[in-house]
Amino acid sequence: MIDHLEIEKAAQLIQKGELVAFPTETVYGLGANALDAYAVAKIFEIKERPSFDPLIAHIASLDMLKLLSDDIDSRVYKLAEAFWPGPLTIVIPRSKNVPDIVCSGLPTVAVRMPDHKVALALIKKANCPIAAPSANKFGKLSPTQAQHVLKNLQGVSMVLDGGPVKVGIESTIIKLDDTGFRILRPGIITAEEIIQVVPLSDEALQEGILAPGMVKSHYSPELRTVLVSSSNDIPHELKRNSAYLPFDDDADSEFKIVIRPAEDLDLRKYATSIFSILHELQESDIDCIYIQTVPKTGIGIAIMDRLEKAAYRHTI
Ligand code: TXA
Ligand code: MG
Prior knowledge:
Helices cover 31% and strands 19% of the residues. It has helices at 4-15, 37-47, 62-68, 74-83, 100-103, 117-126, 146-152, 191-194, 236-239, 267-282, 299-310, and strands spanning 20-22, 29-33, 56-58, 88-93, 108-112, 130-131, 158-159, 172-177, 180-185, 200-205, 224-228, 242-245, 257-258, 288-292. The termini are far apart. The structure holds threonylcarbamoyladenylate (TXA) and magnesium ion (MG). Threonylcarbamoyladenylate (TXA) binds next to strand 4, strand 5, strand 8 and strand 9.
C-alpha cells in the first residue's frame, strides 16, 4: 500500500518538473505538472509520442478546472457532478495558463478528475493539474498494473504502485462544440449514461479519427493479434501454438492457451482484464493471439474499439 510519505515524495518530484507514474481507476498514467511545458515535454520524449497527440489534464477539484478554462459551460458542471471523480474526460476551451504542448496547440484542453485515491492525493499534494497520458510507449498496450509501467517505460522518476486498476480501459472522451457534445473515444461510461445528463449531438458516436490520438492502429501487443467471430474460423494447424480469448464461445482444447476474459459474459469484467491478459500473453511462447469479438453494445463499443485497434491489419 502507498503511504503518505510516498505521495509526498511523488508530489515533490512533480513540483520539480519530474515525471511520476501513478494509478488511476482506468489505466496507469505518466504524469507531469500540466502547467510546466518543460516537464510535459519529457512525457512526449519518454513515450515517443507524436506532438500532434494532446494530453489529458487530471484535476482534483473544480477550482483546478477553473484554472484550465475561463469558459466553462453549465453543462460541463452537470457532467462533472454526475461522473466526477470518474472515467469521463471532457474537452473544453482552454485558458492561457495551459501550455501549448499539453493541447498540441489546439484551442481546447481535455480534463478529467480520476476516481482513485492515490491519483487524487498526488494531484492535491502537488497542488497543480497533472497532465498524464497512459504510461506506455505510443501505440502500445496501456498499463493496468505498476509492473507493466516498470517493464515498458524507462526514465520515469517514480512509479506509485496502487495494485491492479479497477476499470482497465481508458476514459470516455467527450467534446463540447457548437452542435453539442460528441463522443471522441468510447469508454466504460456509455452514450446511454451520458444522455441521461446532457444531450449528445445528432451523431452521438461518429466514425473515423476524432480525438487526434485516435489512430487506427493502437494498443498493439507485440504478438500477432487477430479477431474472430468464433474459433471455428481458425484452421486447426494454427491453433496449436496460439492463445484464444473466447467471449461466449465453447472451450476449445486445440489451443495452447485459452483465457476467458469474463467468465460470466460481464463486459465490465472483460474491460478490467483484457489489457492485463494481453500483457501476460506477450511474455508467453506463442505465435498468435486470437480474440473472439464481443457484442458492440454498451461497454462492448469501447472494448471493440480497443480490440479492433490491437488487431489492426491482422487477419487469419
Ligand atoms: O483513462 C484515461 O483517459 C487515461 C488515464 C491515465 O487518465 N489517459 C489516457 O491518455 O488514456 P492518453 O494520452 O493515452 O489518451 C488521451 C486521448 C488522446 O487520444 C488524445 O488525442 C485525446 O485524449 N485528447 C487530448 N486532448 C484533446 C483535445 N484537446 N481535443 C481532442 N482530443 C484530445
Ligand atoms: Mg494511451
